[in-house]
Amino acid sequence: MTAASTPSTGVRLPEGARFLAQGLGFTEGPAALDDHAVLVASINRGHVYRVDLDGSGAELAVETGGGPNGIAVGSAGEVLIAQNGATVMPSRSTLTAAPSIQRWAAGTLTTVVPDGVDAPSDCVVGPDGRFWFTDPPDHSLDGTPAPGRLLSWDATTGDLHVERDGLLFPNGLAFDATGERIYVAETAPGRITRFRLTAHGCQPDGWSVELPHGKPDGIAVDVRGWLWVAGSVGGNVMAFDARGDIQQEIRFGTGSLVTSVCFAGPGLDTLVVTAAKGGSVIALPAPHPGLALPGLALSARTARESSS
C-alpha cells in the first residue's frame, strides 16, 4: 500500500486510512461501543475515551486510574476493563487502582474482580456470557518471561477460573465464529495459538502462526475467518486466513507501536487500529466485516426483544 507521512505523530497512514483521534497517550484496547463510536484505553493516563467514528474527536468517558488495558462491552451495555494497575508503565492519573477487573455502568465505576490476578491485559465477553481475559505477570519481550494465564470470570457466580496457564506474555484474544475455539496471542515468542474449549479446559487444536514481523498484541476475527493481528513493535497489522497463511499486511511506520485492532461501525466494516505513537486512533475500510462480538450480539438481541 502507498502511504503518506504524518509529521504530527510519525505514524504513516496507509491509503484510505484516516485519524479518528490523536494525542490520547499510550492507546490500547479499542472496543466497539455502538454503531457510532469506539472506546479506547489510555494506559499511561488512566483514562478510557469515547472516540467517534465520524472523526469528530474524542472525549473522556471515565477515569479508571492505574493502567486500563483491554476493554469489552457486555450484553447490557456495561463496560468491563482489564486493569493492569500501572504495572506496565507509570500512570499520570492521581487515582490509584490495583491490578483487577473493573466495571463501568450507568456512570459508576466499580471493581468486580479485586483479587487473584497479576496484570490483566486484553479481554472479551465470551459466547457463554463469561468475561475472558489474559493475565501476564511479566511483559518482557526478550528471553523467557514468567508464565501467565488465560482466565474467565462469571459475573453471576463470581467464579474466577484458570482456563490455561504457562502462556508466555499472553495478550490479545478472540473467539472464532463457532464460539468453541479461542485464539490467544503470546507476545514474547511472537505466536498466536488456537485452543478448543473442552470439558478438560482449553486444548490446542493444531492451528498456530508466528509473526514474521513484529510481536502480536491485540487481535480480532472477521466473517471470512481471517485473524487480524496488531504487530506492536513491528508497526504493522497482519491478516492470517483460516489456513494460517498471510493474506494482508498493513504498515504504519517504524516506531508507531501498533497495539490493537477492532471492527466497528453499523456493518462492522471499519477496522479501527490503535497506535501508541502520537496516541493515535486510526480507521480504515475493512476488506471483510468483522465477526460480531458476543457481547454486542447479545446487546443487539436484547434491544430488539425489548422493542417488539
Please outline the major beta sheet.
4 strands, antiparallel
Assembly state: single chain
Poorly predicted parts: 1-8, 297-308
Instruction: Estimate nothing, just give the exact number of structural domains.
Output: 1
| Approximate shape | globular
CATH topology: Neuraminidase
Q: Element order, helices and strands?
A: EEEEEEEEEEEEEEEEEEEEEEEEEEH
From the helix content, strand content and strand pairing, which structural class follows? mainly beta
Fraction in helix = under 10%
What gap, in angstroms, lies between the N and C termini? 46 Å
Strands side by side in the biggest sheet: 3-26-25-24
Give the amount of beta strand, in percent.
Answer: over 45%
Q: Regarding CATH, which class?
A: Mainly Beta
Number of helices: 1
In short:
This protein has 308 residues and is mostly beta strands.
Give a written overview of the molecule.
This protein has 308 residues and is mostly beta strands. The protein has one domain (3-307): TolB, C-terminal domain (Neuraminidase, 6 Propeller), CATH 2.120.10. Helices cover 5% and strands 48% of the residues. A four-stranded antiparallel sheet has the order 3-26-25-24, with no helix packed on it. It has a four-stranded antiparallel sheet with strand order 4-5-6-7, with no helix packed on it. A four-stranded antiparallel sheet has the order 8-9-10-11, with no helix packed on it. The longest helix is centred in the last third of the chain and has 14 residues, at 294-307. The chain is globular and about 45 Å long. It holds the Pfam family SGL. The active site is at 217 (proton donor/acceptor).
